[in-house]
Design brief:
The structure holds two protein chains of two kinds. Chain A has 22 helices and 15 strands. Chain A is α/β, with parallel strands linked by helices. In chain B, strand 1 (about 390) and strand 2 form a beta hairpin. The chains are: A alpha/beta, B mainly alpha. Chain B: InterPro entries: Spe-39, Vps16_C_sf.
C-alpha cells in the first residue's frame, strides 16, 4: 500500500510514528498530496491521509479522476480523515462524483500530540479563528475528547477550574461525556490534581508581545514547526577545516528542538540575555573534558575516556549548534529596529501613552514594514488601553488601508470581531487596574536568576500564567474583581472519585495541574509555567496542553483574510 | 519614567530595559565568540563522520527515520523507535541526569511505551468504543454494519452515532418537529461536523423561510450554517440569510469580499461601484468609495502609461521601465508611482500627485514622505528642495518638513545623495544631539564644526580635527574658530 499525505500532517505524525514503523505495516511508498495524476506505484491500496478541508478534497478528486481506469491491477482508494471524518467533505466528494471510488472512509482521531515531556498540542491551526470569529466550536469538542482520553489514561481529574466562554463549554462537554459513557469511570489513580482551562481571549495581550526567552525568540524569528526549526545555513560552517569557504551550504539547516537534548533543556526557557554565559561556561567544561585525554596514561584510563567520547561529541555538536543559533539571534536582537519595537511594546504594556497615535507605528507604516508587525503593535496598544479612542483607531485604519491596500478592511474587521482591535467603549480603561492587581509589569526584573515569571518578557508577566499562579496560591477568590473585568465566566467543578482513589498527600509532595490553553499558547508562557514548576517552594507542577503552539505572527496570520495573490 | 530622547541613554542603562543593550564592557558577544572558538577548535580532535546529517522527509522518498536528530547521528546510535528519547542516554549521562524538567510525571513515559500506533489507538478506542480504525484499514467491512442505514435510531442516538463517525440516514426525520429535535441534539453535542451534516440535511429538505426562521433562535447552528455557506461559496444563499437576519454590515462585507475573486479589472471596478451603496459603517463606506475611485484612476493611468511606454518616446519610461502594472496597488504605492512618473503634471490630470492628494485627502506628512522618496530616487534634488520650501505671505521662504528633518536625511541618504545636498538638511535637524550624530555619521564636516562652535565645545572641536583631511578647508575652519 501507499500513503498520500496532506503535507501539513506529516509534521505532527512525524512526532508519533516513524517510517520504519509504517514499513512494518507494509507501507511501500509515500507521496505528498498535489493535483494531477498520482505517481505510479506498484501497490494495491492508496490511502489518503488528510485534514477535512474542502480545498484538499478538490485535489483528491482530481487525483482520483485522473487515475487510469485501464491499468491493472486496479488500485483501490481509501481515505483517512485526521482528526475527524467530515460529512461536509464527503458531501463535497460526492458532488465531484468520486465518493464511490473510496472503499473505506475512516477517521484517525489524533487529538493531543505529545511535543515534549510536559507539553501536548492538538496542532489545530485555526482553532482560535473558528471559536472566536466563526463561533464554530468543533475544536472545543476535540479538546474535550482529548481530555477524556487523557483521563482514561491518567485518571479522573478531581478539580476543574476555568475562565472564559470556551473553557465553560469544554467543561460542560466533559461532564456530559462522562455521563454518557459511564464506562469511562476508571480505576486509575489520578495523576493530575487540577485541570485549569483558559480561554485565549481572556489574555489577548501575551501573544502579541515579543517573546524574549531563547526558545521564544527562535520561534519569533524563524518559526518552530512541530519541534523543528529551519535556520539560515551561513553560520553552520562546514565541519572540516580546510574545506571551508568554498561552497557554503545553501539548504536551510533543519534542527529538532526538544528537552531530550541536555543543553537545550537547560537554556530553552532562559531569557536570551542569560544564554550567552551558559554557552561559554559549557564550552569551557567541554574543552577541559577533551583535555583529559592527555592525562589518560593507563589502558584503563584510555578506555574510560574513549567510552565517554560519544557523549562528549554529542555535547560538542549540540553546543556548536546553539552557539550558532545564539549568534543568529543576537544579530537581530541588537538591531536598532528590534530595540525600537521592543521599547514601544514595553511602553504599552507598562501603560505609557496607550491612548494616542504612536510615532513609531506611524513610521513603520510609512516605511511599509510587514503588515503583520503593524497589526501586532496596533492590537497590543488596543488591548493595553481596553480599546482605542475612536479617533486613534480611525487614524490607524486609514493609514493601514492607504498603505497596504483597501482590501485589508476585511482583516481589520476580523481583528475587531476577535476583540483584538476595537474602539474603547464607555471611555473606561480597565487595563491599569488589571495590570496593578495582577502585577503584570515588574520594574525590577532579573533576567539571569529570575525570581518571577516576568523574566520571560523582560518585565511583563504573562497574564494567563499569572492567573494559573494565583489559582495555586492563594486562590482566585483574592482576585474576584479583576476576574470580572476579564471576558467570560470563571468557574469551578468537581468530579467525584471513588474513595479508594482519593489522594492522601504526603508532606511536601507537589500538586500537579494540567493547564489547557484553548486557542493557543506561546513558548514564553510555557517557559513561565516551567519556571513555576521548578520553584522550590512552588508546590505545584504544571503540564501544558493547547490547541496550537502560537506566536504573535502566526496568530495574527490565522485571523487575516486570505487574499487572492496579486494578479501579476 | 520619562522617555525623552535625551534621557534615553541614562534610562536604558539604569533599568530593566537593559535587556537588549549590549555595552562594550558587557562582553556577552565576546563570550559567544569565545565559545564558538572553543567549539571549533575541538572539531579537529573529535571529528568523525557526523557531517552527513541524514535528511529525511515525508515527502515521498522512503527514508530511514522520521525524527532524526543531531544527537542520533553524532552519538552514532542507530535510530530507535523513539529517537527523541534515545540519543543522549548512550553516553554516560542518563535521562535521569537531565536538569529537572517541569514535571516528574513525564508524559513521555506514556508515548515511549506505547508508541506503536495500534496500541495508542486502542486507548481512544476504549473510550469511544468504535469508529476509529487503525491507519491500515481492514479490507472489508462486515455486512452487519450496513444495518445502520435502516435502523430506527432516536435523534439522540443518531447524533451519538454520527459523532462516532458512522453514517446514519437522516431521511427518516420527516416532520419539522423531528428535524428540529435532531438539530438541537446535534448542537448539544457541540460537534461541528455533526451539526453541519444535520444542517445540510435541513437545508435540502426545508423551505428557506422556515429554515431561516428556526435558525434565528438557534444561534450556534446559525453560525455553523454561515460558516458552511462561506466555505462552499454559496454566496447568494448566504446573502439571503444575512439579509433575513438583518445583519446588514455583514452582508456588505461579505459582498465586498467577492471582488477578490474577480480578475478582470473592468469587471472588478464595476463590482466595486456596486459595493458603494451597501450598508457599511460610516467609516468603512468612505474606504470602499476610495477603493473604487482608486481602481478607476489606476485603469486610466495604466492605459495611458502602457501606451507611452510602448511608444518609447518618453525618456523617463525608457530610462526607468516600469516593473509592474499599477493596477490594484495600494494608494500610497500609486502616489509614489505618480510622483515618480507624473510629478510635474497639472492638478487637472488624474495622474498628477496633487490630484491624488486632494481626491483621497492624503495627509501632508504621508504626501511629503512619498514624494520625497520618489524624487530622491530620481536624484531630482531641486524637487526635493522645492518640496520642503514654503513661502509665507510676505514672500519669505522657509524650510519645513512635516516629517522632521532627520527623516528627510535618512531618505536622502538611502538614495545616495551627495554630501552637499545632505548637509543642507542635516543642518536643519533641530535636536542638537541627533544633528551631531547624523552629521558625524554622514561626514557633513561643516555641520559638525558649526555645531561645536555654537556649543562652544573646544575639546570636541579639537578632537574632531583628526577626522578631517589635513590641509583641507575644514581644518582651516576649525583652526580659525579655535584661535578666536
Amino acid at each position: 500500500q501507499a500513503i498520500v499525505w496532506d503535507e501539513y500532517l506529516t509534521g505532527p505524525f512525524g512526532l508519533i510514528a516513524q517510517y520504519s514503523l509504517l514499513k512494518e505495516h507494509e507501507v511501500e511508498k509515500m507521496f505528498t498530496l498535489k493535483p494531477g495524476r498520482l505517481p505510479p506505484a506498484d501497490v494495491k491500496n492508496i490511502i489518503f491521509f488528510v485534514r477535512p478541508k474542502l480545498e484538499l478534497m478538490d485535489i483528491i478528486a482530481d487525483n482520483v479522476l485522473r487515475e487510469d481506469r485501464g491499468r491493472s491491477p486496479q488500485r483501490d482508494f481509501h481515505i483517512l480523515f485526521v482528526p475527524r471524518r467530515s460529512l461536509l467533505c464527503e458531501q463535497w466528494l460526492k458532488e465531484q462524483g468520486v465518493l464511490g471510488s473510496f472503499i473505506h472512509r475512516e477517521q484517525y482521531s489524533l487529538d493531543l500530540i505529545p511535543f515534549d515531556g510536559d507539553l501536548l498540542s492538538m496542532e489545530s491551526e485555526s482553532a482560535f479563528k473558528e471559536c472566536y470569529l466563526e463561533s464554530d466550536q468543533t475544536s472545543l469538542y476535540h479538546a474535550a475528547k482529548g481530555l477524556m482520553t487523557l483521563q482514561a489514561l491518567y485518571g479522573t481529574i478531581p478539580q476543574i477550574f476555568g475562565k472564559g466562554d470556551c473553557a465553560r463549554h469544554v467543561a460542560n462537554m466533559m461532564i456530559r461525556m462522562k455521563r454518557e459513557f459511564p464506562g469511562s469511570q476508571n480505576s486509575i489513580f489520578p495523576v493530575f490534581d487540577t485541570l485549569l482551562l483558559l480561554d485565549r481571549n481572556v489574555d489577548l495581550l501575551t501573544p502579541l508581545a515579543t517573546q524574549l526567552t531563547y526558545e521564544g525568540l527562535i520561534d519569533e524569528i524563524y518559526g518552530i514547526q512541530n519541534t523543528y526549526v529551519k535556520l539560515p545555513p551561513e553560520k553552520f560552517a562546514p565541519k572540516k577545516q580546510g574545506e571551508g569557504g568554498k561552497d557554503l551550504p545553501t539548504e536551510p539547516k533543519k534542527l529538532q528542538l526538544n528537552s531530550a537534548e541536555e543543553l537545550y533543556a537547560e537554556i530553552r526557557d532562559k531569557n536570551f540575555n542569560a544564554v550567552g554565559s551558559v554557552l561559554s561556561k559549557k564550552a569551557k567544561i567541554i574543552s577541559a573534558a577533551f583535555e583529559e585525554r592527555h592525562h589518560a596514561k593507563t589502558v584503563g584510563e584510555i578506555k574510560q575516556f574513549v567510552s565517554q567520547l560519544p557523549h562528549m561529541q554529542a555535547a560538542r555538536s549540540s553546543l556548536a549548534n546553539h552557539t550558532s543559533i545564539a549568534e543568529l539571534i543576537k544579530d537581530i536582537t541588537t538591531s536598532e529596529d528590534f530595540f525600537d519595537n521592543l521599547t514601544v511594546e514595553q511602553e504599552f504594556m507598562s501603560g505609557i501613552d496607550t491612548d494616542k497615535v504612536n510615532n513609531y507605528i506611524e513610521d513603520c507604516i510609512a516605511q511599509k514594514h510587514p503588515l503583520i508587525k503593524i497589526l501586532r503593535l496596533v492590537c497590543l496598544q488596543s488591548v493595553c488601553n481596553s480599546g482605542l479612542k475612536q479617533k486613534v483607531l480611525d487614524h490607524y485604519k486609514r493609514e493601514i488601508l492607504q498603505t497596504y491596500g483597501y482590501e485589508h478592511i476585511l482583516t481589520l474587521n476580523n481583528l475587531e470581531k476577535a476583540g483584538l482591535l476595537k474602539p474603547q467603549t464607555g471611555g473606561r480603561n480597565n487595563y491599569p487596574t488589571i495590570r496593578k492587581t495582577l502585577r503584570l509589569w515588574m520594574d525590577d526584573v532579573n533576567e539571569q536568576n529570575p525570581n518571577d515569571i516576568s523574566y520571560v518578557y523582560s518585565g511583563y508577566a504573562p497574564l494567563s500564567v499569572r492567573l494559573a499562579q494565583l489559582l495555586a496560591r492563594p486562590g482566585w477568590r483574592s482576585i474576584e474583581e479583576v476576574l470580572k473585568m476579564l471576558p467570560g465566566p470563571h468557574f469551578e467543578e468537581r468530579q467525584q472519585l471513588p474513595t479508594g482513589l482519593q489522594k492522601k498527600r504526603q508532606h511536601g509532595e507537589n500538586r500537579v495541574t494540567l493547564v489547557f490553553f484553548l486557542g493557543g499558547v506561546t513558548y514564553a508562557e510555557i517557559a513561565a509555567l516551567r519556571f513555576l514548576s521548578q520553584m522550590e517552594d512552588g508546590g505545584t507542577e504544571y503540564i501544558i496542553a493547547t490547541t496550537k503552539l502560537i506566536n504573535g505572527t502566526t496568530w495574527i496570520k490565522s485571523l487575516m483574510e486570505k487574499l487572492e495573490p496579486a494578479p501579476f | 519614567m520619562s522617555r525623552v530622547r535625551a534621557d534615553e541613554e541614562e534610562y536604558w542603562h539604569s533599568s530593566k530595559f537593559r535587556a537588549f543593550t549590549f555595552d562594550d564592557e558587557d562582553d556577552e558577544l565576546s563570550q559567544l565568540k569565545e565559545s564558538k572558538r572553543a567549539v571549533n577548535s575541538l572539531r579537529d580532535i573529535v571529528d568523525d563522520d557526523d557531517d552527513d546529517l541524514e535528511r529525511v522527509s515525508w515527502s515521498g522518498e522512503p527514508v530511514g527515520s522520521i525524527s532524526w536528530s543531531i544527537k542520533e547521528t553524532a552519538s552514532g546510535s542507530t535510530s530507535s523507535l523513539d529517537g527523541r528519547d534515545s540519543s543522549l542516554q548512550k553516553g554516560s549521562s542518563s535521562y535521569a541526569a537531565l536538569p529537572k524538567q517541569a514535571s516528574s510525571y513525564s508524559l513521555s513515559s506514556l508515548f515511549k511505551g506505547r508508541n506503536k500506533l495500534s496500541s495508542f489507538q486502542s486507548l481512544s478506542d476504549a473510550l469511544t468504543d468504535t469508529g476509529v480504525k487503525n491507519y491500515a484499514p481492514e479490507l472489508r467491512r462486515p455486512k452487519a454494519e450496513y444495518k445502520d442505514y435502516s435502523s430506527d435510531w432516536s435523534p439522540k442516538d443518531t447524533v451519538r452515532r454520527m459523532q462516532r463517525g458512522k453514517v446514519c440516514s437522516l431521511e427518516r426525520f420527516r416532520s419539522l418537529q423531528d428535524k428540529l429535535v435532531l438539530l438541537d441534539e446535534a448542537v448539544a453535542g457541540h460537534d461541528g461536523n455533526v451539526i453541519t451534516a444535520v444542517l445540510i440535511f435541513l437545508k435540502r429538505t426545508l423551505r428557506r423561510e422556515i429554515l431561516f426562521r428556526e435558525l434565528e433562535v438557534r444561534q450556534v447552528a446559525l453560525c455553523h450554517l454561515i460558516h458552511f455557506l462561506r466555505e462552499t461559496g454559496e454566496q447568494k444563499f448566504l446573502l439571503d440569510l444575512l439579509r433575513f437576519l438583518d445583519r446588514t454590515e455583514e452582508v456588505a462585507l461579505s459582498q465586498y469580499r467577492e471582488h477578490l475573486n474577480i480578475q478582470d479589472v473592468e469587471k472588478r471596478r464595476e463590482f466595486l461601484k456596486g459595493c458603494i451603496g451597501l450598508p457599511f459603517s460610516a467609516e468603512d463606506t468612505s474606504h470602499i468609495q476610495d477603493h473604487y475611485t482608486l481602481l478607476e484612476r489606476q485603469i486610466i493611468i495604466e492605459a495611458n502609461d502602457r501606451h507611452l511606454e510602448m511608444a518609447g518616446q518618453s525618456e523617463l519610461f525608457r530610462k526607468y521601465p516600469r516593473k509592474a502594472s499599477i493596477l490594484n496597488m495600494p494608494l500610497v504605492t500609486t502616489l509614489f508611482y505618480s510622483c515618480f512618473y507624473h510629478y510635474t503634471e497639472a492638478e487637472g490630470m488624474f495622474s498628477s500627485p496633487t490630484n491624488l492628494k486632494k481626491t483621497f485627502k492624503i495627509p501632508d506628512k504621508q504626501f511629503v514622505l512619498t514624494a520625497l522618496a520618489a524624487r530622491a530616487k530620481l536624484r531630482a534634488w531641486g524637487d526635493v528642495d522645492a518640496l520642503l520650501t514654503t513661502k509665507n505671505w510676505l514672500g519669505y521662504t522657509k524650510k519645513k518638513a512635516p516629517i522632521g528633518f532627520h527623516r528627510v536625511v535618512e531618505i536622502l541618504q538611502r538614495n545616495n545623495a551627495p554630501v552637499q545636498v545632505l548637509q543642507e538638511y542635516v543642518r536643519l535637524v533641530e535636536d542638537v544631539e541627533t544633528r551631531l550624530n547624523l552629521a558625524t555619521k554622514y561626514k557633513c564636516h561643516d555641520v559638525v564644526i558649526e555645531t561645536y562652535r555654537d556649543l562652544k565645545d573646544r575639546i570636541q572641536l579639537t578632537a574632531y580635527k583628526c577626522k578631517v583631511e589635513r590641509g583641507s578647508a575644514e581644518e582651516e575652519k576649525i583652526n580659525s574658530i579655535l584661535s578666536n
